[in-house]
Amino acid sequence: xxxxxxxxxxRRDPTQLPRAESDPKHKMxxxxxxxxxxxxxxANSGDPARQLDYQVWCGPSMGAFNExxxxxxxxxxxxxxVVVVALNLLFGACVHLRRLALRQQGxxxxxxxxxxxxxxxxxxxxxxx
Length: 129
Fold this sequence. Notes:
The protein is mostly helical. It contains six helices and no strands.
């Protein structure tokens, strides 16, 4: 791995190499950086030969989504199709905006009046008509 990493940094930032040759921790950090860059590229390009190496970068939003989806049809990755996730997010945004509009008009309703739990595609289609 070091040979490929060294070749990459020779082109990218050769000033890193002298330190890496004398500092094993820096050398390891460069290998990790090299691999991390490739793993996201493999995921973005959908390289099937590197599927086990895919890395998709995300922030706290992924954890928040997982917490929201817990116990619902979206809990398992198999239930997370693009359409059903997008419809849930759009529906949730509409519910949230409606609640804000009502508040601005002085109407306060309980949380139960604004369902934000994830729904299946069939449930969403029934609600949306």
